Amino acid sequence: MANRWKNTLTDRDVTDESVYLNRRHIIAGAAAGLGLSGIGQSASADDLEPTSWDDITSYCNYYEFGTRKDDPSKYAHMLTTEPWSVKIDGMVDKPGDYAFEDIMSKMTVEERIYRFRCVEAWSMVVPWNGFELADLLELAGVQSEAKYVAFETVNRPEEMPGMRYPVLDWPYVEGLRMDEAMHPLTIMATGIYGKDIPNQNGAPLRLVVPWKYGFKSIKSIVRITLTDTQPPTSWNKAGPREYGFYSNVNPEVDHPRWSQASERVLGTGLFARRQDTLMFNGYAEEVASLYEGMDLTKFY
Ligand SMILES: Nc1nc2c(c(=O)[nH]1)N[C@H]1C(S)=C(S)[C@@H](COP(=O)(O)O)O[C@H]1N2
Ligand SMILES: [Mo]
User: Fold this and answer.
1) What is the model's pTM?
2) Which residues' Cβ are closer than 6 Å to ligand 1?
3) CA 287 to CA 9: how far, in whole Å?
4) Where on this chain does Mo-molybdopterin bind (predicted)?
5) By alpha-carbon position, which residue is closest to atom 1 of ligand 1?
């Protein structure tokens, strides 16, 4: 897919969901006719049916706007996302404030259709647009002592009505180990279905780590810090026994209060479909080696 300026569409790009879905079917059909298995996606991505735009953008977790699933879509329009910059600091060669436009002019935006699994045991499939986090970190020049990456969400109580409640210790913070951050599956998402990412989904840029529970995918990022110590993370601070630093999707390690063996598939109507949750959310082939030798019940 072509480089994009803030996901501005060209005629080669997807314009709306129906065209998008239709085109996918045509391509899938053509590929099948040719005996091909994929269209540049991994084989397993082929059978992923993207969740509708309406479900993705109206059933959200973004506690800075409230804890109900429809709060973010009601209130996130209050957030000013222009101008926007990301402070990149810590163990980097070129620390500083990076303007969103400058970042976008240097990054290659592509489409990634990923499974998305919330720790609350629901899931969807999102056609993200974004760039690899590794490319952004390389722009800032990662120093060899750096072992972790810390992320911070914008801290703007006047524009985020949910922040008046002490549900979490604001601002929302997250972190990854360096190899997780540099993994090619880890992206900064700036769009969905070829459109700019809506505020409720984390505009203008949010992390997406598809093999981890959704809360690791921190929204509306304003700061990225490279460090040599494991950074604190919001949900781990709120419930250390329930939410670990790693939080890899794992059907064999239950949440203390519910099973993680299966998930409710969003947007499948009244008789919502349930499916088995996959190890590393279906990305084991790509990421299992990152955790070789680690006890995943201890490092949950
Ligand atoms: N800043 C911030 N980021 C956040 C959250 C949040 O409340 N605040 N919720 C997390 C959770 S629990 C999930 S499941 C996903 C939801 O992303 P979505 O609303 O785009 O589906 O965002 C994650 N990132
Ligand atoms: Mo979540």
Assistant:
1) 0.89
2) 60-64, 118, 153, 172, 201-202, 214-215, 217-219
3) 32
4) 63-64, 118, 153, 201, 206, 217-219
5) 219
Whether residue 92 contacts residue 146, with contact meaning beta carbons closer than 8 Å, is answered with yes
Predicted confidence (pLDDT) per residue in 25-36, tens digit: 544 444 443 333
Ligand 1 atom closest to the CA of 171, numbered from 1: 1
Q: Whose CA is nearest to atom 20 of ligand 1?
A: 201
Cβ 5 vs Cβ 109: under 8 Å: no
Strands 274-276 and 221-227, bridge-based pairing? unpaired
> What is the second-level CATH architecture of the domain 11-291?
Alpha-Beta Complex (3.90)
Integer Cα distance of 247 and 240 in angstroms = 11
The structural domains of the chain, with segments of one domain joined by +, span: 11-291
Q: Whose CA is nearest to atom 4 of ligand 1?
A: 218
On the question of a cis peptide bond just before residue 204, with omega within 30 degrees of 0, the verdict is yes
Residues of the chain whose pLDDT is less than 70? 1-46
